[in-house]
Amino acid sequence: MSEIRIDALLPAEMATRAEYLGVRKAEMPAFTMFMLAILAGAFISLGAIFATTVAAGGMSVTAADGTAAYSTGLPYGVTRLLTGLVFSLGLILVVVGGAELFTGNNLIVMAWASGKVTGRALLRNWTIVYAGNFIASLATAALMFFSKQYTFGSDAVGIAALKTAVAKCDLGFVQAIALGILCNALVCLAVWMTYSARTTIDKIACIIFPITAFVAAGFEHSIANMYFIPYALLIKGFDPEFIAKVGDKVPKLELLTWNRFFINNLIPVTIGNIIGGAVLVAAIYWVVFLREKKA
């Protein structure tokens, strides 16, 4: 009679589960994979929307007549903490709801290293999922632009969105890679820990702290940035009246361009995310728990 366990899986068992899930993800039909990637891009964008709205609460907002409408007076660290906490919604939806996220799928490297997934299948998954995440993020950014939600809170949400995007476009190439490495190490650790979970609450608890940490610390997530920056670019490019009204509250707004989005952020951050997830998490845990098994 087999033993019935209700406690969390141990790390060695988590590695075996990561290997098994990696094979399932890599062998998934292309259409199913793409649709689940669309969902993941939308889910991460929802987390970004939540985070932008909360980040706006830490700002001093000036009314049209020049008087201060309101100011929460929250310290920088507290605002970042709250922003990170609510951004966790994105990965919670991905893991619990079921979706394919490029950054989390860096853990497929464990199945590849064991020889259970080919390099071609690995790259197929990453390419399809990355494309699906990107399309959904752009679509969500467009939908949010038409919603005019950025005008809420006396324009505070829009100002927060613009400032966030400008800061991301102002990164140096090497800096963006480093921030991407740190980010996806935490994201993949969050996903890795969910492999130990027995319940939905377990999974949510595993996700909250690593995701809150990466957002609070200002690390860079490629899929989230597929929403953050295009959303701000749409505001800048297609609502000149709004920009005329709030432009003086957003320093270096001229840095917000499509070229900088790709060159200064998305490309280096994606490189960093792959290093952080595939090397610093997946490869190391494979060496610790699965290398001898393969040998």
Describe the structure in brief:
This protein has a two-stranded antiparallel ribbon.
Could you characterize the architecture of this molecule?
With 295 residues, this protein is mainly α. It has a single domain (11-294), classed as Glycerol uptake facilitator protein (Up-down Bundle), CATH 1.20.1080.10. The protein is built from 13 helices and 2 strands; from the N terminus they run H-H-E-E-H-H-H-H-H-H-H-H-H-H-H. Strands 1-2 form a two-stranded antiparallel ribbon. Helix 6 runs parallel beside helix 10 (222-238). The two termini are 31 Å apart.
Structural class: mainly alpha
Order of helices and strands: HHEEHHHHHHHHHHH
Tell me the helix content: over 70%
**Mean of the pLDDT scores?**
94
Which strands sit side by side, in order, in the main sheet?
Answer: 1-2
How would a crystallographer describe the biggest sheet? 2 strands, antiparallel
How far do the termini sit from each other? 31 Å
CATH fold naming:
Glycerol uptake facilitator protein
β-strand percent reads under 5%
How many distinct domains? 1
Name the quaternary structure: single chain
Low-pLDDT stretches are 61-70
How many E strands? Answer: 2
CATH superfamily heading: Glycerol uptake facilitator protein
